[in-house]
Amino acid sequence: MTPYHSQYWAHLLTLKGAGGTIENLTRSISNARVDLNPHQIDAALFALRSPLSKGAILADEVGLGKTIEAGIVLSQRWAERKRRILLIVPATLRKQWQQELDEKFYLPSLVLDGAMFNRLRKQGETNPFMQDDKIVICSYHFISAKAPSVQGVPWDLVVIDEAHRLRNVFKPQSKMARRIADSIGPAHKLLLTATPLQNSLMELYGLVSIIDEHVFGDAASFRDQFVRTGSEAERNSQLRNRLNPVCIRTLRKQVVEYVSYTKRIPITQDFTPSDDEHQLYESVSAFLQRENLVSLPASQRHLITLVLRKLLASSTFAIAGTLQGLVGRLRAMQKDLPKQQNQTALVIEAVEENYADDDSLLIDESDFESICELQDEWEPDEETDGVAEQVTSAEPVTTTQPQKTPANTEQDYIDPKLLEEELQELLGFSKLASRITINAKGEALIPALEIALRRAAELGAERKAVIFTESRRTQTYLFDLLSKKGYEGELVLMNGSNADPLSKQVYEDWLKRHAGQECVSGSKAVDIKAAIVEEFKDRASILIATEAAAEGVNLQFCSLVVNFDLPWNPQRIEQRIGRCHRYGQKHDVVVVNFLNRRNQADERVFEILSEKFTLFDGVFGASDQVLGALESGVDIERRIAAVYQTCRNPAQIAAAFDQLQSDLDAQIQVRMDDTRQVLLENFDEEVAARLKVHRDKTLESLGERERWLLNLTRSELNGDATFDPNEPRFKYQGKVAHSGYYHFDWRKANENGDAFYRQGHPLATAIIESAIQRKLDSATLNFNYSAYGSVVSVLEPLLGQSGWLELSKLTINSLDVEEFLLLTGVTDDGTVLDADVCGKLLSIPATVEDSVAGSLPDLSASRDTEMTKRVREVEQRNMKHFDEEVLKLDHWSDDLKQGLEREIKELDKEIREARKVAALAASLAEKLEAQKQIKSLESNRKEKRKRLYEAQDEIDNRRDELIGQIEVQLGQQKSVSNLFTIRWALN
Questions:
Q1: Taking burial as the number of CB atoms within 10 A of a residue's CB, which of 305, 713, 918, 961 is the most buried?
Q2: Which positions are tagged coiled coil (predicted)?
Q3: How many whole angstroms separate alpha carbon 362 and alpha carbon 346?
Q4: Which CATH class name applies to 441-622?
Q5: Do β-strands 973-986 and 802-813 pair in parallel, antiparallel, or remain unpaired?
Q6: Residue limits of CATH 3.40.50.300 in the chain
Q7: Which residues have C-beta within 8 Å of that of residue 683, sequence separation ≥ 6?
């Protein structure tokens, strides 16, 4: 192979194409470490199909990989160097997204929260959101809080996960949704949600309006046309046509040919706490129910109480450490009591200033690791206090109105006697907790684990179990307990720091095994997690994990999940189980939960999570419809916490949970099912046919791209690399930084410990760039047909002939920048060669004989013919996009005009009613009064008609202005550059 071959392949690999084509998309796909399914290609193509589009809603059902679909789109934009990218995700999913982007798509990202934002500000970054080399990942609440900074960035793409949280953006009370929508403004948007339509058609209006405000008119005109309508069939048809360009949805039943699913099998293990454990629980619970507490700051009272109850339910070891922290807080307060002779109280402001934000004295983040994420989604107490009072009422709980703050903030001081009493109580609780060395739930774990492992073995699964707890102290207790019960040497730990001796040893061993391999990222936090997962997969049997393991790790080789602590947030439970019950899981997943039979509230919580959210059984766990009904799982946690905090007897507990279940029933309703199907779901046959085409074309394009890269690499590394004759693998012995084994298949690369070789790998990037930049003079190439080893029928008539061949690159700058290679060739007898024949010729091995003397032939006529074809392709595609945009703007302007005309129709109706009243008036005075009213209404109608004509003209002007902007974008600039010209001979 010659440098001319190399340059040809290098250009083929790097051509910029239209976004909505498989050929262009495979450039990004080839860099991904994922098992792609055709429906994911379909969704990505949909999102990228039109450069005039403002965005799309990807609404596939749960379990179909919307994260992968978004990752493909992100990769494509990144490859196009459109790198101002923002991801808005639930707080609990930030790390998971970061790891998925890094591991599967090699995309760098930054999780931006309050601490990181302030740190970057101190380092001199005026706006920390302005990142040119990292995708920015933030939570909903953080984006809302930092809206002005977000608005200051010209985003190329904004991806919103769980986007149904913003579906009520059109409502005045949805302030956070409105702030987020306004802050991301005109950016291209990608909304991910399995439930774009849950309760009302207005939710579709809300989501679509976030993407593009010109798809529908205003909310009032949408209601008139699509909500308050007589003909449902006609309504659905019109609405579906409007939604088709912005929303795509694939169902699980449509992809069973490509994706297999396993089930969840629940096991419930009852336990009964000892008398000491029960006494500790009841005492601490009663303590937390008091109206006034010195030991808890008012500003964080509800949040801290929630966490304390979680720790109390986790283990006595978890709560013991926190109780000691509260004792330390009160003792510190006592030391700071004013010494003045006449002052007998500690001023509350001093307490709050000195201790309210001292987390080390309250909730130990190193023990309860999810405190920061919980806090991120937790509304301030002054906005949510009052929930407790409403829990047992017959009305649904709402938390939107500000309520009064807890009583102790209204006091002028704290009585030192009250402080001392609380201190003594907490000391008593702490001593009791420390005396308890055996926990009933821990003892129940042993038989439950044995039963579950046997069940998993019956299902054909490996002897693997992941045990989740919310407390690191509980994690240590479980490690010690299981070590004593026969599992020593089979255990591995994962938490937020992984600073224990076992994890350190696992990490060191992993580094030695993988020294010099690509899987070593250099980031200890990332690598130690990878080391622990590998240890669990290859050697250990049980992983004891805090919430840190529920974020961003894939454990599909394990099919047994044990919830030692059960979160109250259904979304977090789904996330936990989803670490194992996910794409790639080959066995049914066993889920073990523990149930405290001495606690009625715990039983009702389990009932809600199991029956209302169907988290623990079935094929898909919590359905997209059910989880999608929740604005946030934290809302459920808040509601449950309020029950524990306010209810003091079984009757109150029963009433409160009955009310909660009733409220959930109202949220999780199915009356929109039929409408959802009609509006959003395509016919199975249509989807199946489209997915088959995508699958075949993608495989063909990926195979072609791999051949180009393999050929180019062989040519450029000739002498420095040894290529495996049986598979796409080679050993490079060049620069130290890149030496080693490489494989084109990421699965085989993982198995062998090779580097995954792809177009985006630094070695491949350097090779491609070198080939493109090489200056090639005209030369004579002798193509050796017999050395090719295969029959190429279109070339056989050319054997023994010679001629000329030119390679040029056409660049068309219109809606997109698109590039094409123009291959033109002729034989010496003047026969013009087809572009496909020229491409086949450049696949044949050749030798460079000598440079070409004299003038080169004029191939411009053939080149212009080929160029005209390409220009026509681009024009036809762009005109299709243009027609679609014009139709959208026509609908938008019609919507607004109909809204204005509606007001006049209502006045016409009032005038007719007034005339009837006038006709029936009994006296002259009444008739005169009725005529005055009619005259006033007619005058109002005349004014409204005048305003209507003006408004219609304004709408038409805005429409023409928007179309004018599109026409400017459609303006086409083209250029052609010659890459090389060769004289050829085929022998």
A1: 713
A2: 897-961
A3: 19
A4: alpha beta
A5: antiparallel
A6: 441-622
A7: none
